[in-house]
Structure formats: structure tokens, C-alpha cells
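Risk register update: the risk of archive-format incompatibility is retired. Evidence:
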Amino acid sequence: MNLRIRVAAAGALACAGIAILAMLARRVLPVGGFYAAKTAVTLAAVTIIAAWTAGAHHPFLRFGPANQMTLVRAALVALVVGLVSEPAVASIAAAAVWLAVIVELLDGVDGWLARRSSLASAFGARFDMEVDALLIMALAILAWQHGKAGSWVLFSGLLRYAFVAAGWLLPWVSRPLPPSRRRQTVCVVQIAGLCAAVSPIFPAGASAPVAAVSLAALAASFLVDVLWLWRARPTSARAPAFPSSS
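Archived output:
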């Protein structure tokens, strides 16, 4: 079976499962009638992008258990994304935080599975990274929507997409970055800071400062990477079609 078809099939199954979970969530959360559709559409978009890029950047015939775990994480992130524009009440905020915590607890599992199955790839690393980026964007919007931080908190999610857009315009920005423990740590700090800001049990007066500190750490991390890329830029070289990033 073609790899892209395998990815699409796995995504379709995940979309069906997440739509069912979203419909069940209506029994315990004050979400609207479009919640299930929002989650399914989000995951479908992730699946389409993954299927499109996997064919060129995943050098194996199997999708692999690690990428399947990342797809599970993406499904949970879709549930968080679906909470955007829902009522700004404590139960919605608490659900978003719990889902985000589960997503991050599973974060190390996909890497372990990739190494154990010998199916590690640039695609898998990028897939994992983009799932985290989508989670950060959703949490930032929720922090703003729930009045826990000003609109500036949206930069927590927008920085990643601005970096990608810059790579389209400036080829040297899209070149691969070396592995970095600092980058991974800052990602965890950013998500933890946004979870704290969104959490209904976290003091309202402390939410914005915590979100601001985590955003400052993320911005500094991006700055370090941009400066490294600037110094390492080639005089004449084509940028890779599937770049790494912060």
C-alpha cells in the first residue's frame, strides 16, 4: 500500500475516533454543536499535510508506531483546538489544560518508539514539532480568549509560523538546525507556562506574567536559532525542501 494512503487511512480512523470523543464531551462540557466538526476538521487538515509530506520525507514503507503515536497526540491537540471560541468558562479551561498535559506526557513516547523500531526520520521529527506548535497556538488563543493575558500572548504561537514564513522568503532561514536540548526545554516551558495561564485554579494576577516569561524564553530561543542560521548561511546553496526549525 502506498505510504500516503497508509497515512490517510490512519488519519481517517483517528478523525472518526476523535469526532466520537468530541460528541461525548458535550455531555460534560458546555460546548456547542460544532465542537465535533471543529476537532475533526483540524485533525483532517493535519492528516492531509502529513500524508502529502510523508511520501517525500519519510524513507520507509511503514508509517511506523512513532508516527502513529504522534497522530494520537495530534488528535488530542485537535480537541484543544476545538475549544477555541467555546464559552470562556472554568470547565472549558480545565479540559484544555488536562488535554495539553496528556499530550506532553506522551511527547517522549513517540521518540522512544522511533528509536526502538529503527524508523526515525526527518518527517517524524517535524511531525512531532508541528503538533507541539499547534498546541501552543491553541493554548495562546485560549489564554487570550479567557482573559488571562492580553492579545500579545498570541505571539507564543505566531512566532513558529512567522519563522516558517521567513524560510519561504529567505532560504538561509529554512536550513536545518543542529539538535538542541535548549530548544526542547523551551518548548516544554512554553507549554507549561500557557497551561498555567489558562488553568482556572491559577491566580488571575499571575497568569499574564507567567505567560510573558514563557514567551520571552521562546522569543530568545528563536533569536538564538536565527543568529546561528545567519552566521552559517551559505553563499550559494539551495535550501532543503523540508527544513528543520525551532
